UniProtKB/TrEMBL annotation:
Gene3D superfamilies: Cation efflux protein transmembrane domain (1.20.1510.10). Keywords: Ion transport, Membrane, Transmembrane, Transmembrane helix, Transport, Zinc, Zinc transport. GO terms for cellular component: plasma membrane. This is Cation diffusion facilitator family transporter. The lineage of its organism: Bacteria, Pseudomonadati, Pseudomonadota, Gammaproteobacteria, Enterobacterales. It is found in: Membrane. Pfam families: Cation_efflux, ZT_dimer. Residues 213-287 form the Cation efflux protein cytoplasmic domain. Its main location: membrane. SUPFAM superfamilies: Cation efflux protein cytoplasmic domain-like (SSF160240), Cation efflux protein transmembrane domain-like (SSF161111). Belongs to the cation diffusion facilitator (CDF) transporter (TC 2.A.4) family. SLC30A subfamily. Residues 18-209 form the Cation efflux protein transmembrane domain. GO terms for molecular function: zinc ion transmembrane transporter activity. The chain crosses the membrane at residues 18-38, 44-65, 85-104, 116-135, 156-177, 183-201.
């Protein structure tokens, strides 16, 4: 295919930063799992599970970026840029499953709370907080450019709050001996990610169903088209997104007899691109039929 029609390119994303964040997160995930088992802390295991989804999100982000850079061809005319939406949706579903598991495990511990080593729990959770802050800093500048990177950032952000909760729980257990606090913190970690995960999942579903982007009103697009005095009307107006920041607009434009349809098309394309940052615009021009 001609280079002018390749839609497989995506905005440059920091692969090196993602790779560093993945290595840090995956390594410490193993530390937290082992530490949670040795200390008997459900909150620490919960935090480790979140770090597992963080690591998976970062890995999928790296895969999505590589896939998204593959050139478009006649079988994949838009390339592979939508792979990041599938990856982000998978991340959201995994995170929801982990949260439900933690809630179930916390319920089981109501009747039998095991001994918890609060000092070891505190040390591991503090180290986890540091790792989360480093990973967040690495992802911060690119989280608005890709749903997949945004998903990874949200998971690291949620895990950062989880680490704070685990630290607080460890201190309380150390000072008071209230072991039930560990399960309460674990439940808190499970619940705090539901709203943000749902928002991410809803955005992914909207894109996969080719819904109108949430930040653009299709009525505004139609009004923009109809504001041109040489246009008699428009129909079959469709607006959807390939990825979070890659929009597509198609429409049938009815122009008045005697008007220059090429001039109209170029003017509309330039205005809509400038106002709404839509790159992929296709107008089918139809002359108004005489009455």
């Amino acid at each position: 295919m001609s280079e002018k029609h390749e839609h497989g390119n995506i905005k440059s994303l920091p692969e090196s930063r993602l790779l560093i964040a993945f290595a840090l997160t995956f390594s410490f995930m193993l530390v937290e799992f082992i530490g949670g088992y040795l200390t008997g802390s459900l909150a620490l295991i919960s935090d480790a599970m979140h770090m597992m989804t963080d690591a998976f999100a970062l890995l999928l982000a790296l895969i999505a970026i590589r896939a998204g850079k593959k050139a478009a061809d006649y079988l994949k005319t838009y390339g592979y840029i939508r792979f990041e939406i599938l990856a982000a949706m998978m991340n959201a579903l995994i995170l929801l499953a982990v949260a439900f598991y933690v809630l179930y495990e916390a319920y089981r511990r109501i009747s039998a709370t095991p001994d918890i080593q609060s000092v070891g729990m505190l040390i591991i959770a503090t180290a986890g907080l540091i790792i989360n802050l480093i990973a967040m800093q690495l992802l911060k500048n690119s989280k608005e450019e890709s749903l997949n990177v945004k998903g990874a950032y949200l998971e690291v952000w949620a895990d950062m709050l989880g680490s704070v909760g685990v630290i607080a729980g460890a201190v309380i257990i150390w000072l008071t001996g209230w072991l039930i606090v560990d399960s309460v913190i674990a439940v808190f970690i499970g619940f705090m990610v539901f709203p943000r995960t749902w928002i991410l999942l809803k955005s992914c579903i909207n894109i996969l169903l080719q819904g109108t982007p949430e930040n653009i009103s299709i009525n505004d697009i139609i009004n923009e088209i109809n504001s041109n005095e040489d246009i008699a009307g428009a129909h079959n107006v469709h607006l959807w997104a390939l990825t979070q920041s890659n929009y597509v607009l198609t429409a049938h434009i009815i122009y008045k007899a005697g008007a220059d349809h090429n001039k109209i098309r170029k003017s509309l394309t330039d205005i809509i691109h400038e106002k709404y940052d839509i790159d992929n615009i296709t107008f089918q021009m139809e002359q108004e039929k005489p009455e």
